[in-house]
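Hi W.,

Here's what went into the run:
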Amino acid sequence: MLKVEEQTPVTFSSELLAKFDEIKSRYPEGKQKSALLPLLHLVQAEFLWVPTSAMDQVAAYLNIQPIEVYEVATFYTMYFLKPQGKYALEVCRTGPCCLVGAEKILSHLEDKLGVKEGEVTADGLFSFRGVECLAACGFGPVLQISPEYTFYENLTTDSVDKLIEDLKNKS
Amino acid sequence: MSRKLLLEHINVPGINTLEVYRQKGGYRAVEKALKTLTPEEVVEEVKKSGLRGRGGAGFPTGMKWSFLAKPEGVARYLVCNADESEPGTFKDRYLMTYIPHALIEGMIVSSFALGAKVSYIYVRGEMMPQIRILEKAIAEAKAAGWLGKNILGTGYDLELYVQPGGGAYICGEETALLESLEGKRGNPRIKPPFPAIAGLYGCPTVVNNVESIAAVVPIINDGGDEYAKIGIGRSTGTKLISASGNLVKPGVYEIELGLPVEEFIYSDEYCGGIANGKRLKATVAGGSSVPILPANLTLKYANGEPRLMSYESLAEGGFATGTMLGSGGFIAFDEDQCIVRNTWNFSRFYHHESCGQCSPCREGTGWMEKILHKIEHGHGTMDDVDLLWDVQRKIEGNTICPLGDAAAWPVASAIRHFRDEFEWHIKEPVKSQNQNYGLANYANPIEKAPVTEEK
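Here's what came out:
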């Protein structure tokens, strides 16, 4: 999973490190490893994915082994271990959303963006994937867009088209 | 109109702010608890209320609190479980979005009762908007003196932090949640020791669901006895129900426990019936893990008596003809929905979410997904249905945490009640690809069993 070509070196800004410090202060002395998940979210918000070099630096910052970071980053589904589109669309594909048309939204996205699940569009703007239950079942179909995780409910193919146009115009 | 304790002010503009929340009587429970009650008295009120864990297991909250070990000089923790991920359940997201202070007020009172000086709200990572809402609300509360050092001059100190998860259903299991909060993979721990003895950082810890903690506020305001008067039998108080699927008005509803299921589905005060004028085929009453029931057993017991929305009534008949209240994730299926396809979808979910620690779950969920995929896509054989039954039997009860059971129950119940639909997929491999099995006899009314008069 952690291939050599994905070893893009990154540098943490002082602003990012200040946020790290604030989060680390939330836990008792010696329990700084608790900051790992929030720190990885901050890294992803900054770089839109989590490169291995960032994981190594997080490990050094928290004074833990790199493997302790890798095992967490690969266990949880939110951390992108390879680059995504600037807007990573995540559509809920679990039962209740499927009862109200989530599968149609996923296949529509594939047609509309011209890429398969997990791929990035040529302009680098979009990628999409199906994810498991997002806890908004009463308002399905739903999707969220990282890194802000803004949420869109009661989707139709038309509202998805409009959303994509809006995001294109914004860029 | 039934009584609302949690969502009473949900439609008040600005109720997400401290100012409006306070105007509507917010933080009275903190004043009452910290100034007039001892921690033990708060625990006692919660015990009297009969409140049961709203995350799904339904274990009495007051009893869970009373198990907390209190060794001298060791920190104790309260951790709120806001890792809401059970398919069909979205009440906690709703509560945190619209009334974040209800959770924060509940956290302060509960932390005081348990003697915690630092508490965490573990929110699933996908809910970044809710995390931002909670952090803003905590900052407001802290600035107003409801959090921090020497709250209300009582000498009680509390720091409250929001912790994001990383995207893993398993972290809703309390020991997996604690592992995750310690910065590790979410692998559930072997119990005992229970978190009440050795939880976060090895210290005594209570983990409670968002709704349970929010319910502590009305319990302290009105008293445990008053709370216990609402509801039916051992199902006291109100419950948030997340209604989804093919309903006219899906959404989050606060009900008094004991409401007839039929009224919940069909009355205009609640879901307003089945969408698009269709008929009800089946329901999953308490989140994807609980057994699926055909329409007729949803509305009535096997003996014809009406079924109610309560822990006991939904479980009436055991797994043979009943289900569970669980987390209150109520999913309705109309006559056009395919039970095989939905069961396959749920199995894929559990396979995806298995942490991989126990072989029966890690391997079994994958097998169930594969077999169901085969049947759904017209390649199944009659032996597959028996194989599926066999696999789920070998998962249930054989794993460290309840995810294995949660994966097995939807499959077992689907075969138990909808076996003919599975067999139809196998006998009609072509037809089943573009037609629905339909309603069949799943909505046939159950008549009240004749009473034989004894002389």
